[in-house]
Amino acid sequence: MSYSTTTRTNITQNQEDFKLSDNQPLIFKRGLFIKELDPIQQDPTQPRTVTVSCTYKNYNKKFLKQRVSHATSNYISHYKHNHKLVSLGLLDNDISSISDYLSSSRAKKRELSEFNNKEFRVKILNFILQNNLSFRLIDSPTFKELLRYLKEDIPTINRKILRDELDSVYLSAFNSFKNKLNNHKENQGTFSLTLDAWTASNQDAYLGITIHFIILLEITHLLIIP
Fold it and tell me: What is the pLDDT of residues 8-46, one digit of tens each?
């Protein structure tokens, strides 16, 4: 844009009757931000500015002295870093408002797949192990109440059932890993061992043995605690 054109634009924007165009970027049409004109410049050849405010609830972030016509990348980055729960699917051209987006999101919720008892037990087991929880949690009245809230006819699950599931998962993983070791050995592969001995607070002694080997450039480890 030439100097004269820029000056004419600035003078136009500094007129009393100047209003922001209705043809705003999607982030304003969707209500993620609002844009307000700042006061007229004393020198009308200077660019008119606007204040851009984030509309996220209880969040008063403002971008001051922005050009009337400006890029929106900073605002989109602001949402990506500060309001991660808000999907930028709002910027889809087929969505006309936040209400429309929420309605669309609800409509797209996945249909629940058929309940699988085996998968249910494995997921409960994984939850217990990943969070280092006691198996006694399974027999807790409040845990059972939670499960019944999610599914009234939830299959029976207790510590014994979960221990049996753990044995089954372990045996399956052990056999799979054993096959890997055999295949690696048959292919003239090599192994490395590391050992670590320690004594627990109850004076029980442990020896940890880890075997290391590489299959197709993938480093594999197996920890064995006798």
Answer: 888 888 888 888 888 888 778 777 888 999 999 889 888
Question: Which sign, positive or negative, has the C-alpha torsion 45, 46, 47, 51?
Answer: negative
pTM of the predicted model as reported, rounded to 2 decimal places: 0.40
**Number of alpha carbons in the 13 Å side-chain half-sphere of residue 203:** 0
The values of phi and psi at residue 110, to 5°, are: -65, 145
Kind and range of the H or E element at 147?
helix 141-150
Return the biggest CA–CA distance within the chain.
87
Give the other-Cβ count within 10 Å of 161's Cβ. 15
Q: What is the pLDDT of residues 88-124, one digit of tens each?
A: 555 555 444 445 544 555 444 444 567 888 888 888 9
191, 148 Cβ separation under 8 angstroms: no
